[in-house]
């Protein structure tokens, strides 16, 4: 049983125990009960929006892997990559930026703290976005 279903059941049981009106008549308690159920559904719908997978903004993703950043670094040309991915590229493919093709050495990579902070803020609201390998 989901949390929403459990809350709805609890509200119905409370309403049933509190209800002394004859069946078929809507009194203030019944109207209040229906409003409470609707508010409850709205709260769960709103809370669920952040948990619904969607598109991660491009600026929060590595240009090579397209995965959300974990340890972003920026090159002198201003392109941000995932550290492990760009280091692997520099070692196995060549010492150049894969997007700009400009010469690049790992000593030129600088942590991109602004993007790291933006990723953390995004993940705080959209926890589904971090795939655990």
Give a written overview of the molecule.
The protein is mainly α and 133 residues long. The chain is built from four helices and three strands. The chain has a three-stranded antiparallel sheet. Strand 1 (72-74) and strand 2 form a beta hairpin. Helix 1 runs antiparallel to helix 2. The longest helix has 22 residues, at 28-49. The protein is rod-shaped. The chain starts with a helix and ends in an 8-residue tail after the last helix.
Characterize this entry briefly.
This protein is mostly helical and 133 residues long. It has helices spanning 3-18, 28-49, 83-92, 113-125, and strands spanning 72-74, 80-82, 110-111.
Average pLDDT rating: 81
> What is the N-to-C order of secondary-structure elements (H for helix, E for strand)?
HHEEHEH
Identify low-pLDDT runs: none
- Report how far apart the termini are: 29 Å
Global structural class: mainly alpha
- Percent of residues in beta strands? 5-15%
The helix tally amounts to: 4
Q: Kindly report the spatial arrangement of strands forming the biggest sheet.
A: 2-1-3
- Write down the Rg: 26 Å
Describe the biggest sheet?
3 strands, antiparallel
């Amino acid at each position: 049983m989901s949390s929403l279903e459990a809350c709805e059941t609890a509200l119905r049981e409370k309403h049933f125990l509190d209800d002394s009106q004859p069946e078929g008549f809507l009194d203030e308690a019944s109207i209040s009960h229906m409003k409470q159920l609707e508010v409850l559904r709205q709260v769960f719908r709103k809370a669920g929006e952040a948990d619904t997978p969607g598109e991660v903004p491009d600026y929060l993703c590595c240009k090579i892997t397209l995965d959300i950043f974990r340890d972003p670094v920026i090159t002198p040309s201003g392109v941000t990559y995932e550290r492990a991915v760009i280091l692997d590229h520099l070692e196995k493919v060549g010492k150049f930026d894969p997007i700009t093709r400009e010469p690049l050495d790992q000593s030129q990579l600088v942590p991109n703290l602004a993007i790291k902070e933006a990723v953390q803020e995004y993940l705080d609201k959209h926890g589904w976005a971090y795939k655990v390998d």
